[in-house]
Amino acid sequence: MDIGQFFQQQIKISQLEDELSQSRQTRRYATPTLTLRNHNAILELTAELFPKAKITVSEESDPEIEDDEYFVITVETPGSVGELVKCHREWHCRIVKVAQETAIAYRLSLDIND
Question: Is residue 63 predicted with pLDDT exceeding 90?
């Protein structure tokens, strides 16, 4: 490799580093229904396990961990603590089967109402 090739390679590396830096700064998940595969399957699973629930989805991030972005599925539902704990555990077991690759991008939040 001659000196000219070396400098061309260094310029390419610098450009790639700049592109990578920019993509890290702007990387965000778009709307849940358009971005993550299996989103509808996850919502259907949630509705199946919590049939009387009002279900909402929000996009959140952890302020202490860079690039830790995820979707919170909030379930407002009546029920006993024991029933809901059982459903909560079942949700975590089944979400991995329904959406193995994207399950990590979801959190479940239960709000018990009477």
Answer: no
